[in-house]
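Feature request, filed as a ticket because there's no other form

It would be nice if the structure record came with a short human-readable summary line next to the tokens. Right now we just get the raw output. Example of a typical job, pasted below so the devs can see what we mean:
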Amino acid sequence: MTASATATGSSTQTGSKSSSERSALAIQGGTPVTTTPVPFMSPGLAAADIDAAMGVLKSGMLRAAKKCEELEQRFAKISSAKHAMTCANGTCALQLAYEPLFNPGDDVLVPAWSYIATVSMVVARGARPVFVDALEDTMQIDVADAARKITPKTRAIAATHLYGCPVDIDGVQSLAAKHGLKVIYDAAQSHLATYKGRGIGAYGDAVTYSFYATKNFATGEGGMVTCNDDALARQIKLLRSHGETDKYLHEQVGYNYRMNDITGAIGCSRLDRLEAETAQRQSAAKRFDAIIGQIPGLTAPKTTPNSTAVYHLYVVKMDPKQFRCTRDEFCKALQAEGVPTAVHYPRSLTRQPAFARFVDGHGGQGHPPIADALSSKVFALPMHHNLTEDHFRIVGEALNKVAAAYRA
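Raw output as currently delivered:
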């Protein structure tokens, strides 16, 4: 899922403008709030990360080895999982989790509001995605809608912990237990998120993560699958490396989805800072909550009860009835004031051409209405661990200025 994304995310981000272009676009007198735009993200490596990578390069042991193993052990612990398996990226993580848990021809409940990989790997497995609507408040998968769409062919549910916020895990697990479904959580955007005080790796049959360059926990590329079942962990490890049980002895057909130790070393280094950086994101979200809460027509992101979000993205909803402009026009004006934005996502997954054969009369599926409407209402503000007091001031002034100018 995703600016990033994800396994989780693709984005449409307002591009950078020259100072003269910003002034030309700026509203209310033509004077922008700032001539130095707020950084949308902060993906750079620290000196310690570079040193860690150099250590592996100098050792000559570039393949998956001790650093990948260390990262697996540490990541399993912080996510409350028994097993953690590194892999090449978040999409590979989804494929490694999906393949042992459902079969070609199965129906799999999937979110209509997510990054494409959550669903594309279901299709790659040969299964049929059954699109489930989003909740209006949290934008997470709607468990009640999922329940309405279960058939005798339904075998699994794939739910995204979107934007860094866990879904209603109790609701998903209860539904799965009632109908004998497998559960895979796509946590590409949700490293260190918790539910009822436990890491999200404690729940479901498998949880997948992305370490893409713009994620909260980023190694450039890379991914992880966690689970709590010994047999499933063994199966995922076999799939990850050509089904190999010994050198040139292959128990089954598999893939080359391994991570390398350079990536693993960067991950171990960045893991040292992840807790502190996550706390900074959570603090920033509270600051934005206070700003958004004072602007009618804009709604701050809501979190699932019993969960702790980690704010990979801070996604605001705009009520178009309260403004004389579209969401895109609102964001263009913010850009002119020095506040970049991104749209996650510009269309729901049922509107993606790649999935056209599953909707619009094919298989009886339509376009879930809430997910469909979100595509024209949401936008993400800058969110990272290096936001400053000046950044909060600029964002607040820009939002108030643009909202006042376009008030209906």
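Something like this underneath would help us a lot:
The CA atoms of residues 131 and 314 lie 24 Å apart.
The first strand starts at residue 12 and ends at 13.
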